[in-house]
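Quick one:
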Amino acid sequence: MDKSLLHKELFSNIKTTGAITFSSKALVSKMLSYAELKGAKTIVELGGGDGSITRGIVEKMDKDADLYVFEISQKFCDSLKKEFPQNNIHIICDSASNFDNHINGSKPDVIFSSLPFSLIPKEEREKIYSVSSQKLNGQGPFIQICYSYLLKFQFAKHFSKVKASWTLKNFPPAFIMVCN
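Output:
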């Protein structure tokens, strides 16, 4: 799918994408800097979108790692499947709240998310937080891009440590929450 069609999908489903543009390379790079992908065997991405974050993960992950990308837009899923046909990259068109049903009992070493939690109904949002915090392998982080610092308090209910950083090199500027 070409970029113009991806942008059309972004705008026509703003309630589920929660964004007005895709993540910048600078934001993706900063987000990835908070995770150690060397040696990670299971990586989960919640909200694959146009693949901005997925591309960054694929560049840095080990060749024998599995990446599970969850996205609810069928158009985005179709585009992601074309771009990432590798056997170890699993594009799943389902809600992030169901990710545990798709990872074959694995415990993710890291979870990346760009989900628009401010727009997700509370019950589903709480389920995503809970499943994410319970299923992470050891001290692996849950790393979230968001546009409101107030989300830090929601994450703090499920993770013992939440560190926030800020980047201006994105439109709009964004927070990165690193939760352990």
